[in-house]
Structure to design on (320 residues):
């Protein structure tokens, strides 16, 4: 069984940034990645200074190369579970392999749960989008339909209005608008369409509109949705950690301290697994912070072990 200082679970921006920090600190680090990034359908990463527009696949490929350049190990695979040992942790890989590490950094991301509307998932990340800061520029001036769900429907419609003058809010399953919300939407020229949406209409390879339960199709070029973001990790579950509901009802994530340290000693988290709203650049920053904190923790442990060994050796010399 291979032994490492740190095992990083998840090879996106957060995990690779943490691994890079640790590898540069001359730690033996392994990254285990399932190859299923959340942003895979997107054409490019945005708001990442010097990397704006870079494809998610290219960003990961370059990140992997940088980690391995400093001696890090990249493993393709799925982690099935974990357990604590006397010297840290062991993780189980699909196919029966095992790895041992003194510390764990979990950066396995999240899953977007979309509203139950036919055709929505197939267009996800292309012309069905969720984050205006990630995709707003790319859909500017297009006919945008905001699919209402949860408590933020009106706010989301006003937000996308910044990028296009042609925004329609479909109330769908959202709560009825308050008079104040209706007034603000009308003042900004956002039309409101009542009724449940049942399907996304597609013409060729692009969104053409949204079909209501009554059969009417409202022409749209882009659909903006609010996904429920859920972080789930078999590793963290095995170690006794549970996700908690986001204070704004956006989904479930694992709580952690400022550097990503969890309530389980030796286990850190970074990226969307702990911060549902983190974009790629902020997830990468969290990985760096977690990596530095883990290295500092290991430095303390190494010093403690060295002192104990020295004291033990001195004690042995004094025995007649």
């Amino acid at each position: 069984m291979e032994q490492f200082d740190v095992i990083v679970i998840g090879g996106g921006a957060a995990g690779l940034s943490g691994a890079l920090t640790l590898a540069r600190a001359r730690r033996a680090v392994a990254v285990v990645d399932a190859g299923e990034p959340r942003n895979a359908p997107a054409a490019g990463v945005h708001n990442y200074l010097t990397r704006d527009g870079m494809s998610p696949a290219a960003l990961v490929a370059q990140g992997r190369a940088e980690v391995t350049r400093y001696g890090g190990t990249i493993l393709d695979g799925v982690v099935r579970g974990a357990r604590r040992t006397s010297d840290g942790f062991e993780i189980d890989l699909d196919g029966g392999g095992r790895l041992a590490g003194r510390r764990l950094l979990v950066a396995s991301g999240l899953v977007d749960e979309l509203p139950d509307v036919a055709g929505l998932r197939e267009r996800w990340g292309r012309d069905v989008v969720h984050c205006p800061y990630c995709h707003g520029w790319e859909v500017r001036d297009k006919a945008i339909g905001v699919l209402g769900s949860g408590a933020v429907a009106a706010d989301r419609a006003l937000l996308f209005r910044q990028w296009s003058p042609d925004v329609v809010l479909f109330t769908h399953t959202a709560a009825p608008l308050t008079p104040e919300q209706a007034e603000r939407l009308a003042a900004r020229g956002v039309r409101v369409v009542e009724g449940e949406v049942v399907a996304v209409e597609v013409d060729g390879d692009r969104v053409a509109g949204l079909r209501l339960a009554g059969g009417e199709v409202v022409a749209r070029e882009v659909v903006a949705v609010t996904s429920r973001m859920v972080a789930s990790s078999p590793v963290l579950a095995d170690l006794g950690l549970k996700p908690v509901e986001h204070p704004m009802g956006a989904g479930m994530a694992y709580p952690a301290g400022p550097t990503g340290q969890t309530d389980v000693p030796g286990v850190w988290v970074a990226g969307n697994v702990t911060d549902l709203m983190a974009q790629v650049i902020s997830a990468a920053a969290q990985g760096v912070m977690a990596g530095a904190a883990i290295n500092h923790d290991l430095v303390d442990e190494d010093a403690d072990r060295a002192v104990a060994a020295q004291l033990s050796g001195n004690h042995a010399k004094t025995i007649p």
User: Anything to note?
Assistant: The first helix runs from residue 13 to 24. The two ends are 40 Å apart (CA to CA). The CA atoms of residues 29 and 72 lie 5 Å apart.
